[in-house]
């Protein structure tokens, strides 16, 4: 795994498209139990080299009810975005993740995590890539029907503060989805602690 992560860190495939430079951000270990697949690093993550080191990360950790110690323990959780580098900023926010990363690296990383029990698919890019034809017409419907993708995949909206309006409109997310997400994460992490 260390060798593969080093290869990713040295990847320059998209360099010509990245105005802010190349800085792949990924964290994983052979022992990872939960894999979080987001979109791409934002500017803060790009500058600090720490995945989910922003308000979105705070919201995500709150959704999961875990602290930073657990979140950044790669023996428990792997953090692998669809695009490993900050894609830059467009007119309405960050640009989409570069399309080269997932086909080039994801399968190789996942193959080296035999104990991974759950993959959180955060946002439309990861859901389209991993759920394929089984994805619903909208992200809202995909998330609402999260049970269709269990036990391995768990689709979620992006935890960006910009999505607070979406959460307010979709109260079922707080009432139905988050309790099941938290329970599933807790069981996996508790079981991993018992196996030590």
TrEMBL record:
Residues 25-182 form the Uracil-DNA glycosylase-like domain. InterPro entries: HI_0220.2, Uracil-DNA_glycosylase-like, Uracil-DNA_glycosylase-like_sf. SUPFAM superfamilies: Uracil-DNA glycosylase-like. It comes from the Bacteria. This is IclR family transcriptional regulator. It comes from Flavobacterium tructae. The lineage of its organism: Bacteria, Pseudomonadati, Bacteroidota, Flavobacteriia, Flavobacteriales.
